[in-house]
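This part of the workshop introduces the protein records we will be handling. To make this concrete, we reproduce a full record directly below:
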Amino acid sequence: MKDNVMRKTLSEGKVVIGTMLQELRSPAIPLVLSDIGFDFLFIDMEHGAHTMETAADLIKITRLSGMTPLVRVPDLQYHFIARCLDAGAQGIMVPRVETREQVERIISYSKYPPSGERGCSINKGHNDYKSEGLVPFIEKANRENLVILQIERERAIKNLDELLSVEGVDIAILGPNDLAASYGVPNDLSSPILSDAFQKVVDTGKKYGVHTGMHIGDADKLKEWMRKGMNVITFNTDLGFIKTAATAGLMKLKG
């Protein structure tokens, strides 16, 4: 099993920057994004249109591109987590996490025994279809794959110590728009309520050795929170990039 470059980069105290695919399915897209310089790529199965087959193909290309392939699964269910990891994802993000019990299930579904209950099939996409000894494979998979929680509810902020203190959690990523809606302050990501919540995530992450980040299309907001300690930066989506670039070009042509 290959090393997780994103994990290594984070362990060195560096920032990683990635993006998310929601609609585009061409194998060219991960190659283009890698050439631009992104460190990781989320394949979105929660809000995106990707089937398991499409996700598996995109994961393979992302692995070959040099980026770290991650998947946002639709829900906390074993078959989503295990199949995406079998396909070669080097990390999974589960949305709408609010309780310690949910986190413990995520860890259990993501890890092989004795750390969890994930079933083992070695010569799959996660090992680039190569054979390997059972014990070294399990040990490395449990060590290298990233477990990512998406923090996007007021209840999750209240329960942060319970969530991030669970052994095996690597990253907590804020979903600021859902969080804003949860707090009743939509369309105001500069609200003091949200700023306090964001800071609590950073501080609690540092307390438990969990990396923190945010997913949003606002580069200035991401830069602000990079300065405040976030180091897993998920910038925009494929749809966001298309819309931004197309709008800017059209305005210039019509102006």
The chain has one domain: 5-254. Strands lie at 16-21, 40-44, 68-72, 91-94, 146-151, 171-174, 211-216, 232-237. The first helix runs from residue 5 to 11.
